[in-house]
Specification:
Chain A: InterPro entries: AAA+_ATPase, ABC_Ni/Peptide_Import, ABC_transporter-like_ATP-bd, ABC_transporter-like_CS, Oligopep_ABC_C, P-loop_NTPase. The structure holds two protein chains of two kinds. Chain A is α/β, with parallel strands linked by helices. Chain A contains 14 helices and twelve strands. In chain A, strands 6-7-8-3-9-10-12-11 form an eight-stranded mixed sheet, sandwiched between helices. In chain A, helix 4 crosses helix 5. The longest helix of chain B has 38 residues. Classes of the chains: A alpha/beta, B mainly alpha. Bound molecules: iron/sulfur cluster (SF4).
């Protein structure tokens, strides 16, 4: 493994035709009690027209990774690294080098985002239609054509366009608001849609129906979807590839099926074991022992070692590099090869994985 | 709609209750208003004895309350006079109609109040918004301190201080009256300018002691709204800053202050009595005080009723229009403006 580490290292997070390339992205916050590193040297490619699921506990840095793609990290966070956007027919764009005007164009026109907290993403004193027109207007789009598109989008999402456009946010249910927000985020026909916990506040049934709507939307509008969640079973059904985050780092990347069946990182395996059944509600999940690390004081070496049953002196001393499990499956762990035997999937998880795949 | 009817009903009930109460006062006060009036008329007649019958009629015409009529009849007379807008005749001003006095003074009180309210809200809203944008800066901290300090001063103390310093020590503003003497009322620069000049100190007394808390509330609201998801999303959607400041932050931060506006109108109506006395400003509060001093029951009741009327109407308008401003209240039985 170690002999061609540097080469496999590259290959692992690279894809054939990436639409967004993230290299060495870091987000730091200067705090009173020290520098808080909430995203650590993230390398990731997002393949054109794929659905990529990014999974992690809350506070694992996954929201930062999402915001980074639009250079939208909230103040006073500082984002560094390189993020390149490769549009279909135009020159590649270095996102972090854009000036304000260009950035304004990139956001929502090329890369759009649905935030955590759709319930409060609409201005309570403006009707939903107003949000669409002002967005079209601000980007100098033809408002009439745009509104026709908006109506079509809304009905694609099983909403009554006229009713929803005239309604004020408080008059819509959570699920309706969420769908209206998705329509709003793609009304400027972006290539990439990043969604941060888009279903967190919804009930199980609504979550499922939104997922299937998203799949349809993706096909119809040629979208690349990045789906960020703490809910592994949810993303397992939807995503082509998955990336797992732990303690502000990407610890494992690979095709969904491969990760579900041959997860190589002890954390990913624990996460899968903590999920009794892919259809089970979140509340039935068993937590993983130990707690997520503090961003100011991340453990030395492999940051998972305090919780990892495989941890040894090497893990405490050195931060693991990426190792290739297969061509497209990478993992940041010294002892990945032993993870499967040391942390067997429990029966439920095995059922769950096969169950998940048969759907 | 239901809610609207309910509100209107409440407003009308309040007005009716106040009018009835004032009738009760006139009629039933021990050594009642009617007796006072009668003895006063007797005095004015200077010795020559007025026949009792004539006295009764005079009292009745002036108070709208006939002391000898049975109570229900008297009440009916009184109320129907009120509904027709007849408040009787003033004793203080030698039998002049109270209506005419109110017509002369009410506009001045309204002028003073609008000036104070507009000034106060203009200052408080813009200051509060700037403080919120510069949260934690020296500007913010200094203004917070000053705002709290000034808010703890009663407006009449401020008025006295202004009279002493800006009126006498450095005579920048006139300290009494409504407009310069010797200027004829009309659409002339002298008159209008003079009226503003005269209203300046009374208005400042309200503004200086009232803007602070309002500005702090605005600051708090704005900070809260600035942290809302919808503002962040609006920025990412690339909306112009101006639109975000006005339509997103401004509107959502100002809305809760609408209630404060209504309360401050009520407060100013009440406060206008003391302030108008201090500045010898012949508004409705000033006349009410005259009525009290001269035991001029019709004048007192007339001004009192008009002030009450003003407050009730202001609150009613506020209530009825709040739903237009805040869509969340539109159909709302569940939430009200205050
Ligand atoms: S590197 Fe060591 S501590 Fe980290 S996950 Fe792998 S085995 Fe566990």
């Amino acid at each position: 493994m170690s002999m061609h580490e540097s080469t496999t290292d590259r290959d692992l997070y690279q894809t054939a035709d990436p639409i967004v390339e993230i290299r060495d992205a870091e987000v730091v916050f200067e705090m009173d009690r020290g520098v808080s590193r909430v995203l650590e040297s993230a390398d990731l490619d997002i393949e054109r027209n794929e659905i990529l699921g990014i999974v992690g506990e809350s506070g694992s840095g996954k929201s930062m990774l999402a915001s980074a793609m639009l250079d939208a990290v909230v103040e006073p966070g500082i984002l560094s690294g390189q993020i390149t956007y490769h549009p279909d027919e135009r020159e590649s764009v270095d996102v972090l080098e854009l000036d304000d005007r260009e950035l304004k164009k990139l956001r929502w026109e090329d890369i759009s985002m649905v935030f955590q907290g759709a319930m409060s993403s609409f201005n309570p004193t403006m009707n939903v239609g107003g949000h669409f027109t002002e967005t079209l207007d601000a980007h100098n789009y033809d408002v009439e054509a745009g509104m026709n598109r908006a109506r079509e989008l809304l009905s694609d999402l099983y909403l009554e366009p006229e009713r929803v456009l005239e309604a004020y946010p408080h008059e819509l249910s959570g699920g309706m608001k969420q769908r209206a927000l998705i329509a709003l985020s793609v009304v400027l026909e972006p290539d990439v849609l990043v969604m941060d916990e888009p279903t967190a506040a919804l009930d199980l049934l609504m979550q499922r129906s939104i997922l299937s709507l998203l799949e349809k939307l993706k096909e119809k509008y040629d979208l690349t979807l990045v789906f960020i969640t703490h809910d592994l079973p949810l993303v397992a059904e939807l995503a082509d590839r998955m990336a797992v985050m732990y303690a502000f780092q990407l610890v494992e990347i690979g095709p969904t099926e491969e990760i579900l069946e041959h997860a190589a990182h002890p954390y990913t395996r624990a996460l899968l074991n903590a999920t009794p059944n892919l259809d089970a509600p979140l509340s039935e999940m068993r937590p993983i022992d130990g707690s997520a690390p503090d961003p100011v004081d991340v453990p030395a070496g492999c940051s998972y070692h305090p919780r990892c049953p495989l941890a040894d002196d090497t893990c405490v001393a050195t931060d693991p590099d990426y190792h290739g499990v297969s061509e497209s499956h990478g993992v940041a762990c010294h002892h990945w090869a032993h993870a499967a035997e040391e942390i067997p999937f429990n029966v439920d998880a095995a059922e769950a994985t096969t169950g998940g795949n048969q759907r | 709609m239901n809610w609207f009817i309910k509100r209107t009903g409440q407003a009308i009930f309040t007005l009716w209750a106040v009018a009835t109460l004032s009738f009760g006062l006139i009629r039933l006060m021990p050594g009642g208003a009617a007796d006072i009036m009668a003895s006063r008329l007797q005095q004015q007649a200077q010795g020559s004895n007025i026949p009792r019958e004539q006295l009764r009629e005079m009292v009745a015409s002036q108070l709208n309350v006939d002391p000898d009529a049975p109570i229900h009849e008297a009440y009916y007379q009184y109320m129907s006079a009120l509904v027709q807008g007849d408040f009787g005749n003033s004793i203080r001003y030698g039998g002049q109609e109270v209506n005419a006095i109110i017509a002369d003074t009410l506009p001045w009180t309204l002028f003073l109040m609008s000036l104070s309210t507009l000034g106060m809200f203009a200052i408080a809203l813009s200051l509060g918004a700037i403080m919120a944008y510069k949260e934690g800066s020296t500007f913010d901290l200094a203004n917070t301190g000053v705002g709290i300090l000034l808010s703890s001063i009663p407006y009449y103390v401020a008025a006295v201080v202004f009279i002493a310093f800006l009126g006498y020590r450095t005579p920048l503003f006139p300290v009494r009256g409504r407009y310069p003497s010797g200027v004829d009322p009309g659409f002339t620069v002298e008159f209008i300018g003079g009226a503003f000049h005269h209203a300046m100190l009374p208005a400042l007394s309200f503004i200086v002691t009232g803007y602070g808390l309002l500005a702090l509330t605005m600051r708090g609201n704005s900070i809260q709204v600035l942290g809302e998801d919808y503002v962040r999303v609006a920025r990412l959607r690339g909306l112009p800053d101006r639109r975000i400041a006005l339509r997103y932050v401004g509107r959502n931060a100002v809305l809760p202050l609408y209630t404060s506006l209504l309360i401050s109108i009520g407060f100013m109506f009440g406060g206008s009595i003391i302030l108008e006395i201090l500045f010898q400003y012949r508004g409705i509060g000033f006349e009410m005080n005259e009525g009290i001093i001269y035991r001029d029951m019709p004048l007192m009741m007339g001004t009192f009723l008009v002030i009450t009327f003003g407050v009730v109407i202001a609150l009613w308008i506020g209530d009825a229009t709040y739903g237009k401003l805040d869509p969340r209240i539109k159909s709302g039985d569940d939430s009200e403006a205050y």
